[in-house]
Specification:
The complex is a heterodimer of chains A (107) and B (276). The longest helix of chain A is centred in the N-terminal third of the chain and has 20 residues. Chain A has a single domain, classed as Sandwich (Immunoglobulin-like), CATH 2.60.40.420. Chain A has one helix and nine strands, in the order H-E-E-E-E-E-E-E-E-E. With 107 residues, chain A is α+β, with helices and mostly antiparallel strands. In chain A, strand 1 and strand 2 form a beta hairpin. Chain B is mostly helical and 276 residues long. Chain B has one domain. Chain B contains nine helices and no strands. The longest helix of chain B is centred in the N-terminal third of the chain and has 38 residues. The chains are: A alpha+beta (107), B mainly alpha (276). Chains A and B meet through strand 5, strand 6 and strand 7 of A and helix 3, helix 5 and helix 7 of B.
Chain lengths: 107, 276
């Protein structure tokens, strides 16, 4: 019984962590962002964690979001954006603009 | 290769514009070449150090270290530009007059050269660290690195050529007007930097008041385009300014104007004819 409870608790904890993780995190791997489309709440300030899993540095840049931030290789950075009006806000990894791109959708 | 050239060139032109303006603004001052060169070299060394510690800077202050660093660098540059303009308002006319009559350089002006050398150094530091990180990334990734590296170096060369173009373009302005033109350029430069600095403070989560976007001109001129970036560096063009950014921009322009008026004022008769 106890084991089941512990197991359930662990599952719940993991589920919670997962929900938070895929909430507002952008992961860069092989010069591609996942997710390529990130939904955020409109008209409020939000924090997005940008994780760079590549070995090389990247500059997370979005004129639309008014962000310019260097994320060193194998590292992560926090960007604060908003309040955003509902709409689409493209971003790129400036050093690999062809592949490293995506869009923040405020709704 | 072309991609790398463009990426590096984009970073370099911002610093290049500033150096070109500074060179034009110090026309006729002895030793300015040395000061500007010193600024560029110190900036490049600083850029390498900043790039090396990029990770540590990023993690500092609860992840807002980079934003605070950029805001500070910009704020110092703004102060130096104001100092220079105030000094120029006081002495510019004499320098211009002397240049016209003697046609040679004058010895005055150790002070604004320190200020402008710092401005040059900071501009190179900020843009340069991104170039260093980009080039480092190319070298670290190995594959097809050399072509990209050549592209990057060509980008730096193109940026330097662009700096020269800015400088000689400004030199075409008649001596009589050059200092008033460069003073205006420097005022706009400072206002643009200040509004950028306040946005970095916003990104750091420090100054969040008046953070609504006033207008969006991205449909007309993208800030990411080469021309958009040039205007961004030159007059602080921002496609979506916040209320705070606009207030700071206008505030700095006004402050600059008042400061220059005060500096220019001299009580009649009491000051000896020769400047100190």
């Amino acid at each position: 019984m106890r084991r089941i409870v512990l197991g359930l608790a662990a599952l719940l904890f993991l589920a919670g962590a997962a929900a938070r993780a895929d909430d507002l995190t952008l992961t860069l791997k092989d010069q591609h962002f996942t997710p390529a489309e990130l939904k955020v709440k409109a008209n409020t300030r939000v924090m997005i964690t940008v994780v760079n899993n590549d070995a090389t540095p990247e500059e997370f840049e979005s004129k639309a979001l008014k962000i310019e931030k260097v994320i060193p290789g194998k590292s992560k950075g926090i960007v604060r954006v908003g309040p955003l009006k509902p709409g689409r806000y493209p971003f790129v990894g400036e050093y690999h603009e062809d592949t490293a791109k995506g869009v923040v959708i405020a709704e | 290769m072309l991609g790398a050239l463009i990426i590096v060139f984009r970073e370099v032109i911002e610093a290049g514009l500033i150096i070109g303006i500074v060179m034009a603004a110090t026309r006729g001052v002895i030793g300015r070449g040395r000061w500007v060169t010193f600024g560029v070299i110190a900036g490049m060394l600083g850029a390498t150090i900043v790039a090396f510690f990029a990770g540590a800077i990023s993690q500092a202050f609860a992840g807002a270290g980079q934003e605070l660093f950029n805001a500070s660098v910009l704020a110092i540059a703004v102060i130096m530009l104001m100092w220079h303009n105030a000094w120029m308002a006081r002495h510019g006319r004499e320098i211009a007059a002397e240049m016209r009559s003697v046609g040679t350089a004058v010895s005055e002006g150790a002070k604004p050269l320190t200020a402008l050398a710092i401005v040059v150094g900071l501009a190179v530091l900020r843009e340069g660290s991104e170039v260093v990180l980009f080039l480092y990334g190319i070298m670290a990734s190995g594959t097809s690195g050399s072509a990209l590296l050549v592209g990057g170096l060509l980008g730096i060369a193109a940026g330097a050529a662009f700096t020269a173009l800015t400088y000689f373009g400004l030199l075409a302005i008649p001596t009589r007007y050059i200092f008033s033109v460069t003073s205006w350029l420097i005022a706009l430069l400072a206002a643009g930097m200040a509004s950028q600095a306040v946005q970095f403070l916003n990104n750091a989560g420090l100054v969040v008041a008046l953070d609504r976007t006033i207008w969006d001109t991205s449909w007309m001129l993208s800030e990411g385009s080469i021309f958009g970036r040039m205007l961004h560096a030159l007059i602080g063009y921002t496609e979506r300014p916040t209320e705070m950014q606009l207030i700071v921009y206008i505030g700095i322009l006004l402050a600059m104007y008042v400061l220059m008026r005060i500096a220019r004022y001299r009580p009649p008769k009491h000051v000896p004819a020769a400047a100190e």
